[in-house]
Amino acid sequence: MTWENETLITEFILLGFSSLLQLQVLLFVVFLVTYVITLIGNILIVLITMVDTALQSPMYFFLQNLSSLEICFTLVIIPKMLVNLLSDNKSISFPGCMLQMYFFFFFGSTECFLLAAMAYDRYVAICHPLRYTVIMNRKVCIRLAVSSWISGIPVGTVQTTWLFSFPFCGPNEVNHFFCDSPPVLKLVCGDTYLFEMYAVTGTILIILFPFILILFSYIQIIATILRMPSAERRHKAFSTCSSHLVVVTLFYSTASLTYFRPKSSYSPDTKKLLFLSYTVFTPMLNPIIYSLRNKEVKGALKRMIGKKIYSWKL
């Protein structure tokens, strides 16, 4: 096929949940409530970790970065999805689709490495407590956070620019609720074998490498906790990393179900549901997990609410 015979695609149609026409309003309400809870929860985490003096430690510095990332991550996907649920026009421009895909890869990669940095912080805190403040000084924390954010740039840039360099000659319907690589790739008219090999390899490396770092950190942490003489010390040590462990388990379990599966194992609608767990519900649960399982965060929230009530009374 030659370029002269190809139709220029200027926009894509996000099919989303068009097969569930009778549930569009209900889905809108559910996703809107979820999004509002996600924003409120993560904004509160960012605020209290910035202003509360009891939360000025490396662990909460990384938590602040994680919550900021979740706010940005959901902003890329959910608002457009909400608009499409109530609108007959479900189109997204070619540049808009490209930007959405870029930031999806960017924030997804960043979260993998940020969770690894948080695991390293817990490893140092539990396995080397006497040297914790020396090893995890402010400069090291900033470098780890910046490195995590920078990691998403090459991933998003290479995969997005490569994919959108292919010719698109129609149709232009993306069977998803956002511009993800696999459904957009199906619309390409050209040989995509090399890109597919790169995409699979890149995804495995981006997810697997940080996971190995996290796994190694927790093997050391568990070994150290088991060697502690008293049950009270073991419980206290485990409680400092339990929230992060739950978040990591939730993130990697949903990511694995989404990406590491045979192409034909799930129907398109099932794949969308799996992506919802990864892109919509997990960002909402993270601040809830840290709030419910962390006494310092709960204490900071109570102090902040108490100050607000006191100021209103005045």
Describe the fold and architecture.
The protein has 314 residues and is mostly helical. It is 75% helix and 3% strand. The chain is built from ten helices and three strands, in the order βααβαααβααααα. The chain has helices at 24-51, 58-86, 94-127, 132-135, 138-163, 181-185, 193-226, 231-259, 268-293, 295-313, and strands at residues 11-14, 91-93, 173-174. The protein has a three-stranded mixed β-sheet with strand order 2-1-3. The protein is globular. It starts with 10 loop residues before the first strand and ends with a helix. The model is unreliable at 1-6 (pLDDT under 50).
Overall 3D shape = globular
Distance between the termini: 74 Å
Low-confidence stretches: 1-6
Q: Trace the largest sheet across and list its strands.
A: 2-1-3
What do the pLDDT scores average to?
Answer: 87
**Biggest pleated sheet:** 3 strands, mixed
Number of distinct helices: 10
Radius of gyration: 22 Å
Helix content: over 70%
Q: Can you write the helix and strand succession as a string?
A: EHHEHHHEHHHHH
The structural class is: mainly alpha
Portion in strands? under 5%
- Strand segment tally: 3
Task: Please render the helix and strand layout as text.
Elements: E1 11-14, H1 24-51, H2 58-86, E2 91-93, H3 94-127, H4 132-135, H5 138-163, E3 173-174, H6 181-185, H7 193-226, H8 231-259, H9 268-293, H10 295-313
Parallel strand pairs: 1-3
Antiparallel strand pairs: 1-2
Helix pairs in contact: 1-2, 1-9, 1-10, 2-3, 2-9, 3-5, 3-7, 3-8, 5-7, 7-8, 8-9, 9-10
